[in-house]
Structures are given as structure tokens and as C-alpha cells.
Amino acid sequence: MTPNEIKSFLDEKVELYNNPNFIESDPIQIPHLFSQKEDIEIAGFLSATIAWGNRKMIIKNGHRMMELMGNTPYDFVMSHTENDLERLETFVHRTYNSLDFQYFITSLKNIYTNHIGLEAVFYNGQLNNNDSRAMQTAISEFKKVFFEIPHLPRTEKHISDPMGNSAAKRINMFLRWMVRQDNKGVDLGIWKSISPSQLSCPLDVHSGNVARKLGLLKRTQNDGKALFELDSKLRLYDPKDPVKYDFALFGLGVFEGF
Predict the structure, then answer these.
(1) Cα 118 to Cα 136: distance, rounded to the nearest angstrom
(2) What DSSP line would sit under 154-218, residue for residue?
(3) For position 130, what pLDDT does the model report?
(4) CA-wise closest residue to 159 among 207, 118, 205
(5) How far apart are CA 1 and CA 7, in angstroms?
(6) Nearest CA-CA partner of 191 in 181, 201, 200
(7) How far apart are CA 86 and CA 166, in angstroms?
């Protein structure tokens, strides 16, 4: 296919998958449970953090996280006691265990107490970087803030660092949920300080394989360099909303076996 034909093909697939039906089988349903900004972003962040492996298990454990916090994530983060944290000791999702979950709660409290909140940390992280990698720089800066209080070294693996050549799939997905505004009912678009034009595709095995078959990606590894290569192509198709093509690439891979 020519570049124009690929764009038209992907645009059709975006329309097919970027609608409320997508929510039923995706972890984005977890933040959709809430209406308060802080509840939405905490639920989204925690759900995106465990978004690897079996999708049904991701969704099940995302709901369980919310239940363990009394389905009031922001209130739990800000007012939890040591006894409340003990309630989390039964939680595990693959290598993300209760110790990680407990630290995430205490770190989030630090962020809302001392850094104005999640949106402010990401906004400040990209403030002095106007190129197409601005949000990847912001993710790296976010990781520094997230682990600025005492923590177990093991927990650091659950936040990727693009400056270490990671594609940071889960945080890029979280940012898509929070920033992208398309009035289609899927992405929540509650963060107004960051432009959707700065977002990057949540690159994983599915979107990577489809991108390679379409000639959008040559690099064989799904790492930071591959993300930059894919981003460069997708920004040509839609510089204002390049990450919308995540719906097409992911949908083609997961639902159509492209």
C-alpha cells in the first residue's frame, strides 16, 4: 500500500474501534467508573500500571484494586492509615505485589500533597521540552518524583523510563486516557494542560507487529527507539492527534489477528 492508502486504512480502523464498545474489553473501564478528576486519574494510573498479561485478568485485578480502596481511590490515598495499607496485603498481579501496591499509595499521597497532583507532575516534566519527545522526557521526570521518598528497589521496575530506551507502553497508555479528547466516549480527556499532539503510541507486541507489517516500523525491538520511529510516521498522518492510531494498530492485532 502507498502511504496515503495506509493512512486511509488506519483511519477506517480508528473509526471502527474508537467507540464505547471498546471499553467493555479494555482496562480503561476502571477509570470510567468514577466522575471526580482525582479518582479517575488514580484509578487510571493504577490500572495502567498492571496492564500486561491476560486482559481479563488485568480488568479483574483493576476492579479488585478499587474494591480494596473502598471504591474511593483519592480518599483512600489521602487519608489511609497503616491498618488500611494492611488490607492490600492480599493483592498480587504477576510481579506487582502488595508491597508495590502499598508504596504506590504512599507515593501518590506525596504527589498530591507536595506536587499538586499527577497532572502537574507530567505537565512540569515536559514544560521546557518542545520537541516530539517532550512527554517521554516528562515520564522520566515523573519517575524521579514518584520514587523520591524511601522505597524498595524492586518497585522501581513498575515505572518505565524512556530515557533508558523503554517504550513505556503502560504510562503512554495512561497518558492517552488522561489527555486525549475526541468526544467518542473512550479516552477521558480530563487533563487540559497537555496537548494530545505530544502523546506517543502505547507500543506493545500487538501494535508493533501490525506497524511492521504495514511498513511503519523497521526496528525489531519494541523499545524507545522503535517508539520514536513509529511516532515519526504517525505524526505525519495526524500531527494534532497521532496517538489515535493506537486504536487501529491495537485493534488490528488483537481483534483481527492482522
Answers:
(1) 15
(2) GGGGGS--GGGT---HHHHHHHHHHH---SSSSS-----SS-GGG------HHHHHHHHHTTS--
(3) 62
(4) 118
(5) 10
(6) 181
(7) 32
DSSP letters, 37-85, are: HHHHHHHHHHHHHT--S-HHHHHHHHHHHHHHTTT-HHHHHHH--HHHH
Rounded Cα–Cα distance for residues 217 and 231 (Å)? 9
Q: 189, 174 in Cβ contact below 8 A?
A: no
- CA-based torsion, 197, 169, 161, 178: positive or negative: positive
CB 231 within 8 A of CB 201: yes
Enumerate the β-bridge partners of residue 92.
Answer: 97
The per-residue pLDDT of the chain, averaged, comes to 95
- Amino acid present at 77: V
CB atoms within 10 A of CB 146: 23
Interval 205-254: pLDDT, tens: 999 999 999 999 999 999 999 999 999 999 999 999 999 999 999 999 99
Say if strands 92-93 and 96-97 run parallel, antiparallel, or are unpaired: antiparallel
In this prediction the pTM is 0.95
Q: In 173-199, which positions are buried (b, 16+ CB within 10 angstroms) versus exposed (e)? A: bbbbbbbbeeebebbbbbbeebebbbb
